[in-house]
């Protein structure tokens, strides 16, 4: 097969493989094919908002239309029986299938390689980086294996832990490297069992560097490791292997090395990721040579953006690669100008990848990020691969682990603390599939481990004190923290408040819509920690409220959750008697006061979507039983995240703790979603009670300036 | 306890019983109490459209708000753990609880007694009568036990079969009488086991008449039967017993008889139904006497409307009752005027019941109907007890059997053949609770038994021939049958067509909305057998589309199911390529042609409701797998219900069978429910293809008069 032929079948895949791939992902039911994402003439890709982008986020929506073509098909024998529930069509799609699907759709992908950090705070930082990079829609990320650092251990910096956190908390399909050099069968089996137990299903099988003084390994070559994984675990693991376009430095020859690669593939590898190189022709030749000797699996080029002179020298030395003379000539003169080198690196990598995409030989690109993000993101964006407007498959971040792939419903309470929710439900075997009710009283795990790197605030203690105040002198000081957070304003020290204990992120766009109203309530001591506006059938592609496939309609009931003082809680109870359309639940810290008009065993759907050809999807509920669990966390955060910033016995700590001990946690659902919500009216009435003695008066419409008035007049000012 | 006291606690119930009752049904979540149905000054009840009426239809919506009061309550210990799913809050509510709930709510009920008919057609007629009377909302009906007629047998006229059909096919909570006289323990155990197996949970335990030449019974008294049922089945059966306001004719004295009654109650009876009587004072004294000796269970007066001189004489003789002189004096002179006697009977019974309701002593009334309906319905309506506008709990008729009480989803295909659906799913153990998907490939029972009395047409063969034609000479003759049915018009012989094989009832109000359009299609050979218009969030109390509790919103996707010729089916396939918003499924009789663009294992919700405080309820789906089952029935009905009316080899039979063999069954779902449906446009295009040769032209908008135009011009005529 010559290079000419590759333009017809550029990836060199078996037609049987392509067929398999085609049946999986070619078509969406409504005739939206993955091909809509057009390739530009320069090889870059136009970024459009497409439902098929969901493939990169999880396996939802892209693989269950068997025998699909948009003109319909005579129904043949069932190719793969779906076992999951029907509303979101979620099921686990192995990484190998995702890659094939993207090859078939002609939509190039990118993936990202990271190494485990050395410190705890490094681990937290890396997770934050993964969170950011996930936005762009990588197909997967992989975590390297550090044999010297107990990579299979339980420390926060082990390869195993980082891969697990990447999968579950950053929500990336994750591949774990594993090296066999120096390892016994027992070592490997222990690692594989643990990876499986953690939900990891992708392994990059490597030999790794032989330790000079190490024991002889049970696995002399990576081929033996691949064989062992396949033999022991069948198809459970997707297996990647490394390819060396310049030949493995220890191989007798380039041709010998290709034969080793062929053996690895024949042993069961699903795809190849190449060692880094600097010229596209190297990759073209390598792929062509692989196809010549019968290697049919996808080959993904590995690219390292040149980020500094030192790192280039270091990597080249490690990998025993030769840097092309033309690159040396450009880089050498810039060696003291890091920025210039980085810019060159971005340019060089972008051009090389464009050439590979244009040729059609590279199905995607794998980035050796060196745990940095700026250069890589810049290149991804230049290539048009960054997913600017990702269409969410569900209103919350879907975890791509096969363990949770059928998860399609969550209580709203944890919507700003998804990591805590995942942590507390990580031991669940079965995810409630579509009906929360089918999993009555699910046992939530305890949350005592606020220090865990994926749970704790991304900010340091000092940063939090800067935001929330080095000292708290009054309740109003506390209220103002909430107020400034919602308004996106700096506090009195000029520090912008970007988080509160219940929300470690900035406000989501949905909340922004109502943040003025919320801010006004908070300034006066109604301390809101969760909310959503009502929505009556907006398009599923709506940039703020949309999720799911095209052609759907999204609905929400207005929801508000807040802390209030005991006195106000009493007034609120009175006021609520006038509003039969509201479901409420009021509870105190120890749970002895527990007052609701909701059916206790019945969750209330507060977000749902209606899509073509499906049942109704209702991914967010207000569940009275889970609320009892959530309240412990919600009250606990006052103490754990805030009060403990101050010395024991200090006034600041006392104030925070007195709020935790005396305030009530309230949630309100306005069931009449098609109409303007009455929740603001209820809270205006509540505020109007403050200066009054008589209940009757309290319940009448207030003539003083209510929060609604205040916001309205602000809006008027804005529109003038 | 004197009569004076009964006005405070008129039913004489234990306060503990009342409390239990209160916790069950006093309050709907939205503060709508059962008390809204006001009692008029004359003791009759105003008929209002109330959600609490649902109690009489099934146990949905009225019994799960534990500890409820409309101002909320501190949540106490769980009194009864709900085990069913959460969307409709369905669970089985025993008849005894329903009675207590109605006593507590102050809303009188009525119940109806029938005896098993003697013939097969009598059985079909009785079922039709039960269907009609069910509309008025009886709390239950009961079926008498005919010891001489093998009452526990399997014939269509046995007490057991009629009770089972009443429960499952007429949808009435049903009580089966059982008499012990002459029966052995083995007899009774066999009967009870069979009743249990059939889903019957209410037994009226009677001694019955001793057979003069019979064997001595194992159960000398009804008390022994009550004890035996309780001992053997615990609380499984609700047990009613008979009370004799005039004393049992065989009892030594009235007081002795009261003691026997007390024993029956102490043995475990849940309530008392009285023998008939003619003056309210008799009932007042009886209740008072019962309460005096400590009988606390509800006592329901049994009333027999006087319907003819002969039947009055007959009943009085049987029951050894004395007719009051004043009644004798009125009836005697009228003895040859049946209508006058019936009118008097209606008047007399109504006045007596009103007096009993006004006193507050009677919680409801039990009618000895003698299997007739006119007089009883007339009385019920005079009393204001007839439920004029029943609010449906779900869009289809709910079966009150505990076996099906969690059923909350059905395929739309059987919507006009609910009895066939119930028959075919009667062996299911678990009803898919909320997610059709959780019951993949449910195994439907065969439908070979078209002759079964609850499945066959209520019309005779001659009536069907009158409607559908004594001879069929052309396809157009067939099409006209559909057309006339939909238009509610008489056929060419002047006979109004009120049914077609797929629909044994007149059109439902929902279909009426679109019947003109449908009729036009049918006249031209698109033979529709099922349809629903799209609906976008109408109020749940809407008289046509509404169901479920107040405060909800109802949604529907437009649905159309029809037979078409092979040629048209080909054109339709072409046309459908232009409409990505439509899900279609096209199939032929033998299923070899099976063409769909739907996910084969995923049902499409086509009717759903959003209610306060609940998950989304989606009771009707289009399920591709069930469609494969339904098509056998739908094609089979051509032959079984229609072709077989004509002699073998006749032209009429040939035409019908050729349609069954050559037409295609199609279903279409328009997923874009908020917009005007495009289904009419699709079918107009289809009709416009008929006279054309070129596909391209066929796909363009037709300039000839389409069905839409025709209907529009009709509407214009109407509005001029």
UniProtKB/TrEMBL annotation, chains A, B:
Its name, as the record gives it, is methylenetetrahydrofolate reductase (NADPH)
Family per record:
Belongs to the methylenetetrahydrofolate reductase family.
Keyword field: FAD, Flavoprotein, Oxidoreductase
Tell me the NCBIfam families matching this sequence.
fadh2_euk
Cofactor(s) listed: FAD
Q: According to the UniProt entry, what is the EC number of this protein?
A: 1.5.1.53
Signal peptide residue numbers: none
Task: Cite the MTHFR SAM-binding regulatory domain residue spans from the record.
Answer: 392-688
UniProt KW Amino-acid biosynthesis keyword: no
The pathway that the record names for this protein is: One-carbon metabolism; tetrahydrofolate interconversion
Q: What EC class is this? A: oxidoreductase
- Annotated catalysed reactions: (6S)-5-methyl-5,6,7,8-tetrahydrofolate + NADP(+) = (6R)-5,10-methylene-5,6,7,8-tetrahydrofolate + NADPH + H(+)
Read off the lineage from the record.
Answer: Eukaryota, Metazoa, Ecdysozoa, Arthropoda, Hexapoda
């Amino acid at each position: 097969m010559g290079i000419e032929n590759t333009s017809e079948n550029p990836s060199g895949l078996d037609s049987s493989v392509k067929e398999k791939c085609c049946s999986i992902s070619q078509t969406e039911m409504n005739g939206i094919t993955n091909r809509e994402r057009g390739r530009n003439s320069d090889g870059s890709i136009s970024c459009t908002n497409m439902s098929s982008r969901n493939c990169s986020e999880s396996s939802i929506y892209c693989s269950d239309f068997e025998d699909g073509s948009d003109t319909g098909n005579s129904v043949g024998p069932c190719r793969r029986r779906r076992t999951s529930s029907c509303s979101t069509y979620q099921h686990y799609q192995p990484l190998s299938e995702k890659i094939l699907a993207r090859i078939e759709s002609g939509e190039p992908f990118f993936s990202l390689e990271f190494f485990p950090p050395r410190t705890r705070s490094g681990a937290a930082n890396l997770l934050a980086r993964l969170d950011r990079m996930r936005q762009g829609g990588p197909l997967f990320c992989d975590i390297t294996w550090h044999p010297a650092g107990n990579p299979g251990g339980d420390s926060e910096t082990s390869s195993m832990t980082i891969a697990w956190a990447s999968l579950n908390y950053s929500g990336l399909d994750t591949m774990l490297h594993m090296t066999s050099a120096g390892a016994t069968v027992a070592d490997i089996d222990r690692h594989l069992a643990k990876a499986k137990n953690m939900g990891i299903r992708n392994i990059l099988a490597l030999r790794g560097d032989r330790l000079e003084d190490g024991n002889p390994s049970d696995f002399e070559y990576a081929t033996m490791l691949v064989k062992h994984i396949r033999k022991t675990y069948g198809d459970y693991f997707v297996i990647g292997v490394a390819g060396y376009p310049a030949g493995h430095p220890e191989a007798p020859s380039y041709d010998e090395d290709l034969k080793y690669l062929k053996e690895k593939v024949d042993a069961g590898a699903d795809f190849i990721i190449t060692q880094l190189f600097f010229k596209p022709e190297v990759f073209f030749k390598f792929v062509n040579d692989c196809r010549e000797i019968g290697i049919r699996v996808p080959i993904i080029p590995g690219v390292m953006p040149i980020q500094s002179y030192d790192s280039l020298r270091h990597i080249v030395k490690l990998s025993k690669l030769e840097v092309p003379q033309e690159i040396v000539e450009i880089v050498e003169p810039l060696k003291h100008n890091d920025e210039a080198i980085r810019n060159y690196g971005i340019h060089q990598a972008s051009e090389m990848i464009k050439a590979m995409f244009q040729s059609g030989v590279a199905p995607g690109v794998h980035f050796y990020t060196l745990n940095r993000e700026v250069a890589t993101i810049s290149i991804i964006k230049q290539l048009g691969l960054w997913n600017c407007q990702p269409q969410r498959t569900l209103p919350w971040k879907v975890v791509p682990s096969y363990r949770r792939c059928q998860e399609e419903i969550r209580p709203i309470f944890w919507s700003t603390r998804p990591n805590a929710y995942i942590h507390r439900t990580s031991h669940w075997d079965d995810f409630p599939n579509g009906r929360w009710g089918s999993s009555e009283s699910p046992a939530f795990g305890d949350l005592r481990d606020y220090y865990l790197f994926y749970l704790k605030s991304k900010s340091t203690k000092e940063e939090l004190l800067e935001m929330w105040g080095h000292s708290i002198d009054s309740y109003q000081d506390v209220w103002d923290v909430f107020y400034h957070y919602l308004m996106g304003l700096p506090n009195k020290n000029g520090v912008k408040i970007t988080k509160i204990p219940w929300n470690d992120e900035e406000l989501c766009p949905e909340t922004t819509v109502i943040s003025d109203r919320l801010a006004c309530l908070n300034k006066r001591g109604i301390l809101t920690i969760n909310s959503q506006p009502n929505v009556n059938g907006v398009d599923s592609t709506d940039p703020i409220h949309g999720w799911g496939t095209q052609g759907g309609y999204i609905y929400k009931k207005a929801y508000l959750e807040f802390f209030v003082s005991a006195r106000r809680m009493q007034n609120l109870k009175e006021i609520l008697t006038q509003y039969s359309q509201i479901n409420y639940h009021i509870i105190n810290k120890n749970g002895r006061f527990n007052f609701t008009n909701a059916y206790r065993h019945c969750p209330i759907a507060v977000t749902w979507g209606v899509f073509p050809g499906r049942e109704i999807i209702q991914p967010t509920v207000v569940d009275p039983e889970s609320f009892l669990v959530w309240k412990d966390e919600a009250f606990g955060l006052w103490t754990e995240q805030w009060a403990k910033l101050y010395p024991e016995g200090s006034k600041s700590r006392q104030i925070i703790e007195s709020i935790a001990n005396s305030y009530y946690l309230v949630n309100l659902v306005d069931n009449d979603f098609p109409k303007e919500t009455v929740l603001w009216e209820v809270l205006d009435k509540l505020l109007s009670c403050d200066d009054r003695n008589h209940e009757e008066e309290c319940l009448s419409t207030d003539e003083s300036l209510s929060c609604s008035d205040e916001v309205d007049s602000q809006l008027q000012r804005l529109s003038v």
